[in-house]
Specification:
By secondary structure, this protein is mainly alpha-helical. The protein is built from 5 helices and 2 strands; from the N terminus they run H-H-H-E-E-H-H. Strand 1 and strand 2 form a beta hairpin. Helix 2 crosses helix 3, helix 2 runs parallel beside helix 4 and helix 3 crosses helix 4. The N and C termini lie far apart (50 Å).
Length: 128
């Protein structure tokens, strides 16, 4: 498998030449880049602040649980009963599979959710 990043006009033309000479039956796909490390670090910092400063219906959630809850709000996930029948499992959400723009939308969702609840993020506390 060959992966090429469109970085400008020269790269775009080289990719086109590659496609034009590819054998029949080969598959070409164009995809948005996946989330980056900076986005990932920002999300976890925000989730930690959210975890420290608020709760969900009286329940204190850890950052991982907040990630599950909020990412389920972004992508339409399926919820099924767990194996013992005393809880539920959210299926189909993997933030590692989100594109850069989907991840940006998740960060916006986290921001709006947290601001509505009066959460002050770490970078805002440092600036004050």
């Amino acid at each position: 498998m060959i992966t090429r990043v469109i970085t400008g006009e020269v790269a775009r033309k080289a990719i086109c030449r590659h496609v034009l000479t590819a054998p029949e039956g080969h598959i070409v796909s164009i995809a948005e880049p996946k989330r980056n490390l900076e986005q990932n670090a920002k999300m976890w910092a925000m989730l930690a602040d959210l975890s420290e400063q608020t709760d969900w219906h009286g329940n204190k959630l850890n950052p991982e649980e907040w990630k599950d809850l909020l990412s389920a709000g972004l992508v339409q996930s399926k919820v099924v009963p767990n194996m013992t029948g005393n809880g539920f499992v959210i299926l189909g959400q993997r933030t590692s599979k989100l594109s850069k723009s989907q991840f940006a939308a998740l960060i916006e969702l986290i921001t709006a959710f947290a601001v509505d609840r009066g959460v002050i993020f770490g970078d805002e506390r440092q600036a004050a």
